[in-house]
Design a protein that fits this description.
By secondary structure, the chain is an alpha/beta fold. Helix content is about 25%, strand content about 25%. The termini are far apart.
Length: about 80
């Protein structure tokens, strides 16, 4: 849906065998979850995303929020536990 609106869609996964599936869903780029995680505990990171949808939570959600551009939007789908 987002790719049809001509946005550059980046998907993150911990399962390398899911890359093709994510590309079929509309991702233009698939990155490894391990390459995406930031454990530095910095309050803010380099701004990368104007919008994000997260269904994982935890460090993934924390990294997304800290690297979202000003006025960007983050949607979290599912249960939210705690962010360390």
């Amino acid at each position: 849906m987002v790719s049809k609106a001509r946005y550059h869609v980046v998907a993150s996964t911990g399962k390398s065998d899911k890359k093709e599936f994510l590309m079929q869903l509309g991702a233009e780029e698939v990155i490894s979850r391990n390459d995406f995680f930031d454990t530095s505990q910095k309050s803010l990171l380099n701004a990368k995303w104007i919008a994000a949808v997260d269904n994982v939570g935890g460090n993934t959600l924390s990294t997304i929020i800290r690297s979202t551009k000003p006025h960007g939007v983050v949607t979290s789908v599912g249960w939210l536990n705690q962010i360390n």
